[in-house]
Amino acid sequence: MAWIQIRLNSTDNQAEQISDFLEEIGAVSVTFMDSQDTPIFEPLPGETRLWGNTDVVALFDAETEMNVIVEALITSRLVEADFAHKIEQIEDKDWEREWMDNFHPMQFGKRLWICPSWRAVPDPQAVNVMLDPGLAFGTGTHPTTAMCLEWLDAIDLVGKTVIDFGCGSGILAIAALKLGAKQAIGIDIDPQAILASQNNAAANDVADRLQLFLAKDQPQDLQADVVVANILAGPLRELAPNIIKLVKPQGQLGLSGILSSQANTVSEAYANNFTLEPVREQEEWCRITGVRKN
């Protein structure tokens, strides 16, 4: 089936209203992108994050009269009469196949590879985690996940216990186990994340060494040699007392999901309890690591 797409520039205040209106008049899908074509990063449930210059991209059946769509937008007064927009035909493709073709094995650090199941493993002698993109996010493609994987690859995990706080797909816990950890524990607020982590652990033959808990059910006395939390800056600050308790004395902590501009405020929440190392930055994101004081 062929499609036709309209792309128009909006503001963060109007983009959702425009999206709702386009769906009402027949759009089969509507997405938001910033004016630099950067996808929105993992919004919280019920939240849509928009930039000041937001592009709204709507997809319609190819038979749609787009001049009618444009006129309807103008009549709605959601846009100006001369609003900037672009209309183009979209080639019909096997989107699932194209998506699979574009997902390749990725190396993190010296030993670790994350590999989709439909690709050949580049180095059978490496530490290979088999992970397909699924319902819970976390495949290694985002800088925050990449920096956590690199950190896990660089530290000594042999015989240690690791907690993955906000485990999502389980990628960090599974990588830790494959890198030599004795046991890993995944914690998340989302039952879907627990299910995804279970399935991914089974696919990597480490399910017997991975414990999973919903946050409300985690044991009160839980502690580990290494704790990694790749979530968001706000929760990292708010949950700092809970996360600190999870780390044994002289244990190691890795935090990510943090914009570089947020590094100082997150670091301040942990500085009294940890000897913090230099902040690692990649693109606009960062990772904070440290060792818990006695």
TrEMBL record:
<keyword id="KW-0489">Methyltransferase</keyword>
<feature type="binding site">
    <location>
        <position position="166"/>
    </location>
    <ligand>
        <name>S-adenosyl-L-methionine</name>
    </ligand>
</feature>
<keyword id="KW-0808">Transferase</keyword>
<dbReference type="Pfam" id="PF06325">
    <property type="entry name" value="PrmA"/>
</dbReference>
<feature type="binding site">
    <location>
        <position position="145"/>
    </location>
    <ligand>
        <name>S-adenosyl-L-methionine</name>
    </ligand>
</feature>
<dbReference type="InterPro" id="IPR004498">
    <property type="entry name" value="Ribosomal_PrmA_MeTrfase"/>
</dbReference>
<keyword id="KW-0949">S-adenosyl-L-methionine</keyword>
<protein>
    <recommendedName>
        <fullName>Ribosomal protein L11 methyltransferase</fullName>
        <ecNumber>2.1.1.-</ecNumber>
    </recommendedName>
</protein>
<dbReference type="InterPro" id="IPR050078">
    <property type="entry name" value="Ribosomal_L11_MeTrfase_PrmA"/>
</dbReference>
<dbReference type="GO" id="GO:0032259">
    <property type="term" value="P:methylation"/>
</dbReference>
<keyword id="KW-0963">Cytoplasm</keyword>
<dbReference type="InterPro" id="IPR029063">
    <property type="entry name" value="SAM-dependent_MTases_sf"/>
</dbReference>
<keyword id="KW-0687">Ribonucleoprotein</keyword>
<feature type="binding site">
    <location>
        <position position="230"/>
    </location>
    <ligand>
        <name>S-adenosyl-L-methionine</name>
    </ligand>
</feature>
<feature type="binding site">
    <location>
        <position position="188"/>
    </location>
    <ligand>
        <name>S-adenosyl-L-methionine</name>
    </ligand>
</feature>
<dbReference type="GO" id="GO:0005829">
    <property type="term" value="C:cytosol"/>
</dbReference>
<dbReference type="GO" id="GO:0016279">
    <property type="term" value="F:protein-lysine N-methyltransferase activity"/>
</dbReference>
<dbReference type="GO" id="GO:0005840">
    <property type="term" value="C:ribosome"/>
</dbReference>
<comment type="similarity">
    <text>Belongs to the methyltransferase superfamily. PrmA family.</text>
</comment>
<keyword id="KW-0689">Ribosomal protein</keyword>
<comment type="function">
    <text>Methylates ribosomal protein L11.</text>
</comment>
